[in-house]
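Morning run. Coffee first, then this:
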Amino acid sequence: MRTPAWMLLKSQVSATALASAMVVAALAGGAMLPVTAAHAQSTAAARGLPDFTDLVDQVGPSVVNIRTLEKVSNNAGDALGMDEDMLEFFRRFGLPVPNVPRQRAPKGGQSDEEQPRGVGSGFILTADGYVMTNAHVVDGADEVIVTLTDKREFKAKIVGADKRTDVAVVKIDAKNLPAVKIGDVSKLRVGEWVMAIGSPFGLENSVTAGIVSAKQRDTGDYLPFIQTDVAINPGNSGGPLINMRGEVVGINSQIYSRSGGFMGISFAIPVDEAIRVSDQLRASGKVTRGRIGVQIGPVTKEVAESIGLGKAEGALVSAVEPDSPAAKAGVEAGDVITKFEGKNIEKVSDLPRMVGNTKPGTKSTITVLRRGKLKELSMVIAEVPSDEAVKTKGAESSKPSQGALENKSLGLKLGELTAAQKKELAVKGGVRVMAAVDAAARAGLREGDVILQLANVEVMDLKSFEAAWAKADKSKPVNVLVRRGDWAQYVLIRPSK
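And here it is:
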């Protein structure tokens, strides 16, 4: 069985696709049957279901259709390297011209044709023409066309787009537009009715409804999402999620699907996060985020218990970038960051969101758990480079110095670190794994690893390792902080008896 994937609603919609969907429905024995308004109203009243008609009248005019175009070369000969004579030969003798993708016209050059690229949705943010949508709706577009409910069309200018949050703002030259009302996401409750308006498969101003299935749903993206069961399909991207007060609480952005179509699980970007991004995009055309320069991972239940954390929460620091705010503040690999600015880090994804929302240059504090003790560290937040991943330099291994220690209970053969190795790894001390068998091998250790801590005790050399082992409770799994290249993580070794 194929693993399901999180799917962006890329909104590549065509009339052919819509017609195909209708044919499939017909072949399946389906039929489009009219239902009288009176019958629908009486059924809703009998079941106590909400009436969305007033909401549609209120918010509908604020929802727009967004079409994107790209400039391509329609000269098949250019794409194939053929001249017109060769193409004429194919046509004259009824031979099919080889089917190749159309070439995107070079920037600054003359384009032969503008081809439809996709269809999405958006909503009017301000009366003077700012429109919010998804970044993936306008990504790569050479031209953006915004169509209002009164059928007026405008060429839009892309003010800015932020791929990390999938939020974009475009501007049209219009006045006195019906702007949406922004809701309070903190008051949104699971089980609450919500409604979506958009252009699924290019069908403008389609209305669907459902309930909030979950809040703060972490899908691995930069933001926590609102999960709903509102029917969302390609073309709904960028449209508003609306509460029963007619307020926008989210931007419909993603679906969970095995087929590519709606399967009952949809995700919306919380509107408060989107507004924070849009304010920066309107002010400067880009989004500025904070960073502290650490690589982090989750804290497992077993590791949390072994290091005295109690429960599995916080962010485990696996690497610290040299000369970063974290490095200057004294953060070390193996630290568990439990708080940022006094706020608890309940799961690992909380930290980048909190730090990212902090203005660069701000002096902030973090709380870390290090060898069983809490420490508070201060640092000045740095700025995230635009669309660049933070990379740390890999450390190369050097030959260990003479002297070795063998611990059969742990299955380890250890050696001292040279001064050069300590400098390369940017560590004060530690011992190098020369061989890992039995218990150590089962825990995942291997030759070349560097042990920095044993049973919550810092290891500087072989002598301190022996001292830490002598005090360790050998009847329980022993936690070991292991450095491998630029990464550090806790490993539990169950000693052999």
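The chain has three domains: 1-10+50-63+120-133+158-287, 290-383, 404-493. Good start to the day.
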